[in-house]
Amino acid sequence: MYGIRFFPKILCYQRSFTFFNYARHLHNVSDRILNKRTYSSVAVEDSYVKKFMNAVGWMDQSRTRLKLTGYFLYESVPEKVAYDEWFEKLQLPDTFASWFTVTELHVWLLLVRYMAEDVTSISTDKKKYIKGDGHFVRNCIIEALWADVANRIKLLEGANPVIARKQVSELSEQFQAALVAYDEGLSEDRIMASAVWRRFYALSDEVKAENIESVVHFIRHQVSELDKISSKDLKWKPNFTWLSINDH
């Protein structure tokens, strides 16, 4: 992959939830790039995780190892999620916007699991959130996401650097709003269905209700599977499988 710079800054949450349609088909990337390595029709040359490892080396320091864990976790999304299944089952166009929406959901699932590691019980009926390793890994996952997004946008044919930066900013606003909506949906299926409807279909009246129901069932099932991973494995050996949307 072309040189990637990781930007630790996480853009602030904006209240607006405008849907920006980056409906550009992803098959227009040049053959030269496609012959290297492809994720959902958007190509990259090499793993940016490997680039990072080569740069910092294997330093036996907990924060460095946790940072690598965050980057590996993010990479499991574009590498292991079956995007074609999502596009086909949910009747989504094969565009960058659809790729980002599916990726965003899987990233959120990772964030939910890792943020839960920082919740501490202070009494039988009260819990307190303290920023710790879970929060740190969360930030690393998000850093990796935006590094990947920035490079994918650059690889789209005819992408203008100025426009690309604007698109990343717009996507960040959507991302932050989506995280809030999904978080609220954890308490009730009806609220989660509303969040999915808004994010995946922009509140379109033409969407099939069973498509939204499938995503909600997938979310509940995947959250349950991630909860089974022990705290120790989450830090150093996070090994899990992304469930198929076709099974929901």
Number of separate helices: 10
Strand order of the largest sheet: 1-2
Poorly predicted runs of 5 or more residues = 1-24, 27-44
Query: Gap between N and C termini, in Å?
Result: 34 Å
Shape: globular
Roughly what fraction of the amino acids lie in strands? under 5%
Helix content: 55-70%
Largest sheet: 2 strands, antiparallel
Structural class, by secondary structure, is mainly alpha
Total number of strands: 4
Question: What's the alpha carbon Rg, rounded to whole Å?
Answer: 18 Å
Total domain count: 1
Output the helix-strand order: HEEHHHHEEHHHHH
Q: pLDDT average, as an integer?
A: 76
Short description:
Helix content is 58%, strand content 4%. It is mostly helical and 248 residues long.
Characterize the structure shown.
This protein has one domain (26-247). Helices cover 58% and strands 4% of the residues. The protein contains ten helices and four strands. It has helices spanning 31-34, 48-56, 62-80, 83-89, 96-115, 133-155, 161-185, 189-201, 209-227, 231-236, and strands at 38-39, 42-43, 119-121, 127-129. The strands form two sheets. A two-stranded antiparallel ribbon has the order 1-2. A two-stranded antiparallel ribbon has the order 3-4. α6 (133-155) packs across α7 (161-185) and α8 crosses α9 (209-227). It is globular. Mean pLDDT is 76; it is low at 1-24 and 27-44.
